[in-house]
Design brief:
With 158 residues, this protein is an alpha+beta fold. It has helices at residues 3-31, 153-157; strands spanning 42-52, 55-62, 72-75, 79-86, 94-96, 101-102, 111-116, 122-128, 135-142. The chain contains 2 helices and 9 strands, in the order H-E-E-E-E-E-E-E-E-E-H. The protein has a 5-stranded mixed β-sheet with strand order 3-9-8-5-6, with no helix packed on it. Strands 2-1-4-7 form a 4-stranded mixed β-sheet, with no helix packed on it. Strand 1 and strand 2 (55-62) form a beta hairpin. It is rod-shaped and about 100 Å long.
Length: 158
């Protein structure tokens, strides 16, 4: 074998190894996937209206503590899906101040779903709009960041 042939073979092997490394790096970074890996982020909660001793209260049953008139919690930049069920004996309508959204007028046993896309932090009161707009509780919208500080990729993985 000639010296030029040996150099050509070595050059082809180095190029092949470099090409394989580049392909592994490109694919390993998530640039080639058979499915979408990013889902639309949502926060889903369910609350119920109840009439106890003639007083209207709200109780959380999914994604919320079961206490009366709970503070609902969501994040900015996430779809907030709130299902409201009327387990009371009269009609109710949930109204959220600050977002100016409300459910349909709910007869006993009916339910409705509200979807909000919060873009700012804050606390917003919610009411039973059929009453005299006394606040039942509040919705707290917060911003959550992935990490307080970047310490390097290797330290974040540990």
């Amino acid at each position: 074998m000639k010296s030029n042939d040996k150099k050509l073979i070595i050059l082809a092997m180095v190029a092949g190894i470099a090409g394989l490394a580049a392909t592994i790096g490109f694919v390993g970074q998530g640039n080639v996937r058979h499915v979408e890996i990013f889902w639309a982020e949502t926060v889903e909660q369910t609350i119920v209206f109840e009439d106890i001793d003639g007083e209207t209260t709200v109780r959380g049953i999914k994604g919320v503590k079961g206490e009366s008139n709970p503070t609902l919690l969501s994040r900015t930049s996430f779809a907030y899906i709130l299902t409201v069920i009327n387990n009371g004996t009269t009609v109710h309508r949930l109204y959220i101040d600050g977002f100016n959204v409300q459910t349909d007028l709910l007869e006993p046993g009916q339910q409705d779903t509200i979807t909000i896309y919060p873009d700012k932090e804050g606390e917003f009161a919610y009411y039973d709009k059929r009453e005299n707009l006394m606040p039942l509780g509040k919705i707290k919208i917060v911003t959550v960041v992935a990490s307080d500080e970047f310490t390097g990729i290797w330290k974040d993985l540990i």
